[in-house]
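tool_call: predict_structure(chain=1)
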Amino acid sequence: MALSNNRSVKERIFHACTFEFFAIVFTILIGVFLLNKPIESMGVLSVLISVTALLLNIVFNWLFDRFFPFVNGDRPVKIRMLHAIGFEGTLVLFTVPMIAFFLKVSFVEAFMIEIGFLIFFLFYTYIYNWCYDKVRKKLMG
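tool_result:
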């Protein structure tokens, strides 16, 4: 039996919220321990980036599913890579100005920080969505 390609709005919201919850935790930890930035600045920045990413996540994933539907609940590695790169590339346009402002760094420094986050989140996005889809397939299959 084929697993439905359609996800409800409720499921989309759950998917995006759990993704962003862990993203906030990881971003704060990276900022505090690797970048040596104050937890307050990293907390505010992480939440603002998360809200931006959350809204983008819902819209981006909805559009992505329309153009690249699941086949029996699975996606090939190349499509998963395209998903991760496309989402993070779009998000960069919004995050660099936020990073520069809240961490009081230049746009060049903000871009370099974003590149570090981008590398981390490329892997995180891929792994999170792969795990989510595997769990979803087990629960719904």
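agent: Residues 22 and 78 are 24 Å apart (CA to CA). Proceeding to next step.
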